[in-house]
Amino acid sequence: MQSVPAGLTPPRTSPSGRLPFALHTSILIALLAASSAPTPLYPHYQAQWQLSALDITVVFSAYALAHLIALLTTGTLSDHVGRRPVLLGALAVQVASMALFATADGLTTLIGARVLQGIATGAATSAAGAALLDLEDPARPGRPALAHSIAPVTGMAGVLAATLMVRFAPVPTITVYAALIAVFAAQAIALVSTPETVRRRPGALRSTRPHLALPSAAAHALLLNGAGVVAVWALGGFYSSLGPGFTRLISPDGPEYAGGLVFFTLTAVAAPTVYLTRRMRADVSALLGSCAVIPAAVLTLGALYLANPYLSSPGRRWPGSASELSPRVRCARSSTRYRPGRRAARSPPITYSATWR
User: Fold this and answer.
1) Integer distance in angstroms from the first to the last C-alpha of the chain?
2) pLDDT tens across 140-156, in order?
3) b/e map of 282-315 (b: 16 or more CB within 10 Å)?
4) Backbone φ, ψ for residue 207 (5° rounding)
């Protein structure tokens, strides 16, 4: 009989055992859907509270900074206290951030909501990613890496749902966040009934000291491709935060919800790119992704200076494909080589915490 390493439950291959894997994947998707949900609402906030483009940038930056700090401080916490407690706590904070968004009355409240959201997302993504590695089915190797690469961009494509609510739902500044609260509450309830995948061990407080830990394969890939990864996600971050304002500049008569469709175009291209290039050599995909940033930036600038929305459309699709033509899957696969109970320290969110947006 095959022995099970200490700290890890046996892999789940039964139909019921696939449910925890699907649940943790759905948590990643929902977290990133929530992160992009405010994008189509930014024009409404700007008009209601006379916010500038700089104010919106600050709101977005608050999320990115909080996300990074949470990754660096709580990224390995689930190795010590367990995946489930970290995820339940993160979902609770995420619900609080959604409630703050729904009751926002100005710039300060928006920044506070984004900070809470960044903390929750940073803490949850590392724990959920490590749980996917814990739940890997030996009969289907590489599935956690693929899920962890597709889930974030699939979640960010949730901006389409928010855009549709802005267009059709009553009081979208409340409806969007109320729907997300219901999703996170359902996930928390389901999480309570799932088994823990690691055993508690000492050192939880010490693990919250900020640090970066990279496996050798990921460190080498990051050294070679880090600048390209930063450029790709910086351009994606531009469309996420300033996409609505950019759309109004090049198409002043366009509908208010058009800004959300701008970012959706990017994410809609990114998700299938992950799947279609999953077997491509990492160095080739990284090179193609880095090169794709160049025409994306040129088309974006051309759309701005020529006030031509038709140029912006391919300019959005290029960064979508570039964002996932990176060595991300390769780094994710390297995480599976680390022993159980240490996988949060080597999960993909920690590997890329310095380059996320």
Assistant:
1) 46
2) 767 777 777 777 777 76
3) beebbbbbbebbeebbebbeebeeeeeeebbeeb
4) -70, -15
